[in-house]
Amino acid sequence: MKRLFDIFFSLFGLLLCFPLFVILAILIPLEDGGRVFFSQRRVGYLEKPFFILKFRTMGEDVEKYGQLTVGSKDHRITKIVFWLRKFKIDEIPQLINVLKGEMSIVGPRPEVEKYVSLYDDFQRKIFSVRPGITDNASIRFRNENELLANKENPEDYYISEIMPEKLRLNLEYIKKISLKKDVEIVIKTIIQLVRK
User: Fold this and answer.
1) Do the beta carbons of residue 5 and residue 179 sit within 8 Å?
2) This model's pTM is above 0.70
3) pLDDT tens per residue, range 108-121
């Protein structure tokens, strides 16, 4: 049922957002002539790597300056599409990842290998389900970028404080996973975005 839910809503979402894809394909390259999409290697289901898709909201080749973003203070974010990050519109291309079976609508957000290497054996249980576009941790840390922006060492704070709490929430989700719970998380995510 979860996979059918994912296929239906990813297809519906892609059809609904097709006009937006066309507009952003024109808008995003205006500032620097770069690509429309950004892809990044993440760790997915059963610890298999895949490339997550997003609309590009930063300049080209920015990962060499770090893999965390720190809100409006991050000089790498392009001016034209700043609002894409604010309302999580940059995440919409992940519906393609969902359709391909690499992700789910709801599930633990996929992490880069650098941080996954820090997980202990218990925390690695999150790889027993497909990663998702949204989850309880995303709702809990909806202002993560701004939170990191106020820290002297954002990466240390992420590793020591935010990441363990995200993993705890994701492991709780896996224990109680259900279609009803997924629908509740999607509704909470939409309400959160509307309130921004």
Assistant:
1) yes
2) yes
3) 999 999 999 999 99
For residue 59, give the nearest of 40, 81, 84, 32 by alpha carbon: 32
- Tokens 């409006």 identify what position? 72
The dihedral of CA 141, 53, 190, 193: what is its sign? positive
**CA–CA separation, 50 and 42 (whole Å):** 6
Long-range own/partner contacts, residues 33-39 (CB < 8 A, 24 or more apart):
34/59, 34/60, 35/60, 37/93
Ramachandran angles phi, psi of 59, nearest 5°: -65, 170
The alpha carbon of residue 99 and the mean position of all alpha carbons in its chain are separated, in whole angstroms, by 16
Q: What is the pLDDT of residue 89?
A: 86
Q: Phi/psi at 13 (nearest 5 deg)?
A: -65, -40
Q: What is the pLDDT of residues 61-101, one digit of tens each?
A: 555 545 555 554 556 566 666 667 777 888 999 999 999 99
β-strands 49-55, 104-106 pairing:
unpaired
Per residue, the 3-state secondary structure of 96-127, as one string, reads: HHHHCCCCEEECCCCECHHHHCCCCCCHHHHH
Per-residue pLDDT reduced to its tens digit, 145-194: 888 988 889 999 999 999 999 999 999 999 999 999 999 999 999 998 88
Residue 166 and residue 142 in contact, taking contact as beta carbons nearer than 8 Å: no
